[in-house]
Amino acid sequence: MKEYIQKVAVTLLVILAFVFVPLFFYSIFPHFTPFIIAFLFALLLEPFNLWMVKKLKISWPIAVNISYFLFFGGVILLTYFLSTKLIREVLELMKYIQRNIPEIQTWFSDVFQQIHEFTLFLPPEMGMQIEQIYTNFMQQLSNLNLLSSLGAYTFNLTAAIPNFFIVMIIFFISLYMMSLDLKKIKSKFFSFFKDTSKPKVEVVLSDLRNATVGFLQAQVILSTITYLVSLSGLLILGVRYAMALALLIVIVDILPILGTGSVLVPWGLFSMALGDIFLGVGLIVLFLLITVLRRIIEPKILGVRIGLNALTTLICIWVGFKAMGIAGVFLFPLLLILYKALIKAKVIQFRVKI
């Protein structure tokens, strides 16, 4: 009986931890952002460091220096790419949209004329609401000035640059120091547990790290595949600013529920309505190709990398997004991974008996 009560108590504590730990991290995350992210990247770089120590027969500090400067160089190259080619394409795309706003207004006006004929069969109140929505939308579209908005955004971004650089300096220094002292940090952490509990903690942390790394790798792989397929399709269709638009598709695809269809399908229908059948059909085909490809590879990648099926992951991402925003997209799947690791380590053993 005593053992049963102890198991129930442990299970209840774990459940409470699952409720309050996310809230705790969500509240303190903004204040410790560079240190938390640095620690996560130190864990991500650890397997590579261990591999170099084992295969290249070098010391831990040398391995840390190699991985650190490779990572630093990769960040510099990515920053250079984003600040040159991609930003230039985004600016050109915004100018293109600004120039074609009259054509967009004309298209929406034609569409509304068709909708207006349908609203004649609706109750007067509903028809007035639809007309009011259309009027407000067209007014906002006519007042839209992307370049002016970009100027204001650029000013705010410039004002935030000093703070950003301070955060990045702290991040890189923290990453280097944590990578060097990772073994000491782990040893200090394990010192809080009894010898009998350490094997369970090691199992949980090992599974959590492997699944966390796998989750991040899976997202990077899926986003990279989506970007490459989108970029290839847009280039074949002769779309201008293909790199910027492919990145937009990937960003929308990462957000829960939306997916690539939120960009490609309306764009394809809009193109066909303007008479560009080739582009419109091509965009719809590209959407179908990306969707089928992801449905084939996503379950395999997620299953192999983190041991979760696609539906479970989608539910976690959606619930996390609704509860905590973007942070919840990453935090809730990690909580599920932690839960599975605790069951595997037999920390949670409570079962319902009917």
Automatic annotation (TrEMBL):
<dbReference type="GO" id="GO:0055085">
    <property type="term" value="P:transmembrane transport"/>
</dbReference>
<keyword id="KW-0472">Membrane</keyword>
<dbReference type="InterPro" id="IPR014227">
    <property type="entry name" value="YtvI-like"/>
</dbReference>
<dbReference type="GO" id="GO:0016020">
    <property type="term" value="C:membrane"/>
</dbReference>
<feature type="transmembrane region" description="Helical">
    <location>
        <begin position="326"/>
        <end position="343"/>
    </location>
</feature>
<feature type="transmembrane region" description="Helical">
    <location>
        <begin position="302"/>
        <end position="320"/>
    </location>
</feature>
<protein>
    <submittedName>
        <fullName>Sporulation integral membrane protein YtvI</fullName>
    </submittedName>
</protein>
<feature type="transmembrane region" description="Helical">
    <location>
        <begin position="9"/>
        <end position="29"/>
    </location>
</feature>
<feature type="transmembrane region" description="Helical">
    <location>
        <begin position="60"/>
        <end position="82"/>
    </location>
</feature>
<feature type="transmembrane region" description="Helical">
    <location>
        <begin position="153"/>
        <end position="178"/>
    </location>
</feature>
<dbReference type="Pfam" id="PF01594">
    <property type="entry name" value="AI-2E_transport"/>
</dbReference>
<dbReference type="InterPro" id="IPR002549">
    <property type="entry name" value="AI-2E-like"/>
</dbReference>
<keyword id="KW-0812">Transmembrane</keyword>
<feature type="transmembrane region" description="Helical">
    <location>
        <begin position="264"/>
        <end position="290"/>
    </location>
</feature>
<keyword id="KW-1133">Transmembrane helix</keyword>
<comment type="similarity">
    <text>Belongs to the autoinducer-2 exporter (AI-2E) (TC 2.A.86) family.</text>
</comment>
<feature type="transmembrane region" description="Helical">
    <location>
        <begin position="225"/>
        <end position="252"/>
    </location>
</feature>
